[in-house]
Design a protein that fits this description.
With about 140 residues, the chain is mainly alpha-helical. The chain is built from nine helices and two strands. A two-stranded antiparallel sheet has the order 1-2.
């Protein structure tokens, strides 16, 4: 999955959320962003934190959409590479995504890619669909 940090920072700044640039570092996250990624806080607790940093009231959907701007998409060429590797190796797809990103457009984008990419095999598309239909560990608090 390609990511673009500046998209998320800009989207949250447009929601008048302060201090985002410091928490969304170039190489690692800090504060509530890191805690969400590590499963130490729930999506609701994360959203409440973001609301506390904003100059105006925010809905869950506004926060989720802005946070999801971090993710750009998955190039079909990567799916081709995985498909060719799976002919010779067992392939496991791991992700450090969190419950918000899983439930937002990132998952929908990958499901759409898996459903509509006519250049990948049906078996590969089915594997991707199954992976994105199963619940994530990040969706429950440890």
């Amino acid at each position: 999955m390609d990511i673009r940090r500046e998209n998320c920072v800009k989207a949250l700044e447009q929601l008048e959320v302060s201090g985002i640039g410091e928490m969304l570092g170039v190489y690692c996250q800090q504060g509530a962003f890191l805690q969400l990624e590590e499963g130490k806080i729930t999506p609701a607790e994360f959203r409440d934190y973001v609301r506390g940093k904003s100059a105006r009231p925010l809905s869950d959907e506004e926060i989720d959409t802005a946070f999801d701007a971090f993710l750009v998409g998955i190039p079909v060429a990567r799916l081709h590479a995985l498909e060719s590797l799976r002919c010779h190796y067992k392939i496991y797809v791991l992700s450090n995504t969190n419950a918000i990103m899983y439930n937002q457009a990132s998952a929908a984008s990958l499901r759409k890619t898996a459903n509509t990419a006519k250049t990948i095999s049906t078996a590969s598309a089915q594997v991707l669909r199954r992976a994105w239909q199963s619940p994530t560990a990040a969706s429950s608090r440890p």
